[in-house]
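Contributing new complexes? Match this layout with flavin-adenine dinucleotide.
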Amino acid sequence: MAEVLVLVDAADGAVKKSTLELLTAARSMGEPSAVVVGAPGTAAAVKGTLAEYGAAKVYVAESDDLEGYLVAPRAEVLASVAGQASPAAVLVSSTPENKEIAARVAFKLGSGLLTDAVTVNDDASVVQSIFGGAVTVQSKVGGGVPVITVRANSVTPSAAEGAAEEVPVTVEVSDAAKGAKVVDRVVEAKGSRPALTDASVIVSGGRGVGGADNFSVIEALADSLGAAVGASRAATDAGWVPHQMQVGQTGVTVSPQLYIAVGISGAIQHRAGMQTSKTIVAINKDPEAPIFELADFGVVGDLFNVAPQLTEELTKRKG
Amino acid sequence: MNIVVLVKQVPDTSAERKLNPADNTLDRDAVDAVINEIDEYAIEEGMLLKEAHGGEVTILTVGPDRATESIRKALSMGADKAVHVSDEAIHGSDVIQTAKVIAKALGTIEYDVVIAGSEATDTRMSVLPALVAEALGVPQLTHARKVSVDGSSITIERVSDAGYDVVQASTPAVISVVEKINEPRYPSFKGIMAAKSKPIQTLSVSDLGLGADEVGLGNAASQVVSFEVAPPRQAGQIVKDEGDGGAKIADFLASKKLI
Ligand SMILES: Cc1cc2nc3c(=O)[nH]c(=O)nc-3n(C[C@H](O)[C@H](O)[C@H](O)COP(=O)(O)OP(=O)(O)OC[C@H]3O[C@@H](n4cnc5c(N)ncnc54)[C@H](O)[C@@H]3O)c2cc1C
Ligand SMILES: Nc1ncnc2c1ncn2[C@@H]1O[C@H](COP(=O)(O)O)[C@@H](O)[C@H]1O
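Output block (do not edit by hand):
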């Protein structure tokens, strides 16, 4: 059975859910091999989980150079593993950084790149959703190893035992790949709430929320649903919440089961990041707000009345 | 400091965008074409660097003849000249082929930095700048919300999912910018008039020394096999808050088994 390479995303010693989704998809395409590319010690922490989700092999490429420089070294390592393994496909999850890595890998392999797949078929063709969900396309790579980036939440992860046989990879980063040096990594916000891209429920606030302190209305609603908190650009630009929370064209693209937009008008750039959500609820005092064109359920009213009442109802019904 | 800004012409996002059933490629004639919005921020950043460090700003576009409209707009914002790679043979190229064309075209221009937008609204791939860096073998400084230049050293703040990374490289380098970086200027009347006489050099694939078999739909590694127009979203239920709006949402969520 052909190998299918899966680039592992891990944070704080834990494998991200998106990687478990890829391992699950890879199992129906061939034999999943996890590729761990990171600082020394990364693989030891995550090997157990990779085995639980069916990784037959775990390629271990560890070096401090991989963290110290932007994108290019990781692409070199992944391309060299792919060059040797001749896999049926290389899968990575669709984050901005991973997309850049995937692109450079496809370039080096002389093969093709497919980004933001929502379904990966067993023959490595994919389904993509474009133009804000208005059109669905089937795409494939004609020759060479397909390099595919897959949107989070496209697959339901399921466990299956794998041997997780370790294959050490010698990391030799070329000088050319050391051009962009990461001098510092600044953490601005890290909450206890679920990450936007992983979340199945998201509550987002916009300019209508009116200030940083008022965002507690959004946070309370989110907490009553176990949801992640998002925002429009108006709210991030005003500095009420950090930019990582921005949903949209230039923020995060999400596709949760439920998206609740509160005090957000629904500008085209915001819609670009959320309009493929399964169910959309909107709260806005302006009946003409374009967000209502997308909403499955909308309430025209003051968010400071409607949102707290919803929070209370949800808490009561859970109770 | 000589600057090249990569500008793409895209279909207007607010119009209904279509694929052409004949070859499954983007139907560029069906809708109005505009400059990719974020590329205006790239042009602005190019102008700011020129104003601080001197040099020239050159616009580079790969696209059909009508992309000239977007190039004129870029020139009216203050760029000095433009290079337009236009060739029927390029139609249907995938992003890797486009990156190769752009890299070749950059070989004909003197530059210290290349500035792109972080993402095009039509393909939303966000990978072209990294690919151009790969093809040229120069550092990539992408997704920048801030760019500072000190001699030949460039430092950016790259947005990350936790905050930002400070990344440093020497020129020449490829930068891409996010919309947080600046506020693009509007073309002045004087700028619009001046743009009419600024030079636009048009290049074909063979001018770049590329073979016709290196570009285009027939030679693209990734291909759209088929497409389907998704059924439009069904109109939802909109109610006015009569003091029970929150409870009504809770009822709706319960009916959908979302709580
Ligand atoms: C290149 C570019 C990229 C962009 N990228 C993004 C992006 O990624 N994400 C993004 O979101 N935007 C993006 N934008 C910005 C976008 O165009 C809009 O400006 C922005 O989304 C507006 O945010 P908003 O809906 O919160 O604010 P507004 O449009 O001002 O809407 C606020 C809404 O709140 C309602 N409201 C006010 N008070 C109340 C109240 N008490 N109760 C109920 N409702 C109330 C109002 O009726 C109004 O509809 C981008 C723009 C550009 C040019
Ligand atoms: N055909 C093109 N001509 C010039 N620049 C382009 C072209 N395609 C993409 N770009 C640049 O690359 C950026 C990212 O595009 P993409 O990777 O397609 O999302 C855009 O914002 C442009 O600056």
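Reviewers usually confirm one structural detail per submission. For this one: Chain B touches chain A through 85 residues (CB under 8 Å).
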